[in-house]
Prior knowledge:
The chain has about 280 residues and is an alpha+beta fold. It folds into 2 domains: about 5-175, no CATH class; about 180-275, no CATH class. Helices cover about 45% and strands about 15% of the residues. The chain contains 11 helices and 8 strands. The strands form 2 sheets. The chain has a 6-stranded antiparallel sheet with strand order 2-3-1-4-7-8, with helices on both faces. A two-stranded antiparallel ribbon has the order 5-6. Helix 7 (about 180-195) crosses helix 8 and helix 9 (about 210-225) crosses helix 10. The protein starts with a helix and ends with a helix.
Amino acid sequence: METLPDRWMAQQQQAGRRVCLILDGNGDARQPLMAARTLSQYASFYSDTAVAELASVGPVIVLLEQLDEPALVDLLRQPDLNWGWLGSLPDDDLACVVRHWRERLLVGPDGSRVLYRFDDNRTLARALAHLPNERWPQYLGPLISVCYWHEDRWCQAHNPAPGDYPLPVPAPWLDTPNARAAAILHANILRFLLTAHSENLAALVEFQDPRIWLKQVLEQARAWQWHGVQQLEFLVVHRLMEATQGSVIQWQPLRGETPIDHFERTVEQWRKSGEQP
């Protein structure tokens, strides 16, 4: 049975485009795909960068000719391995797309830079879901279209204006929510409340699902830009006290108040309320 990747690749070739594979560096398909090609038909994204020593295990881009190539077919049969994604280019020159992603490869301040895993289909999917359509060209660059596995299905997305774009500062895709990180944070906070504030948590259970309550509290934290551990602990603990003991804090920020000023004012308000007889 024909799948979305089969149709997508055929459509791209029929439109005169070159199909490429963005492949992570750890899959079994890497060596057979590269061995069957000349040096101009594949490239390592990590070569000639600050992480060049990782080139042999880092992601590569591979031009595809035969869509029934065994190594490719095997990959398409196992999308849940999250091995990468497919893209299309106007020609067989890989230099433009390699340069594009190398410019977006390392993120963070000097001395503590980390790799941006653009080769992971989950990273690509989250970024495209988060970015408004008009920002896709800055993210996808020269890629005309992409095809990728997301959660339990194949997806495709089309770049509205393929081309060469400078790296925006700040890069908007770095603010993409990480669903797994959010789930871990959620679980850790519930575990903390169960250990340190079990009585209040038990009282909350009597009239509200703690998971739903915590989701609402964390959404408030995001809206107020309270991201620090101290800020989150204060908000969660005192919201729980408010819900179960009737204590009241004026939480809403004042007009023009920065997130830091908002937090410090709220803490001071709580301290003063505790000093009242």
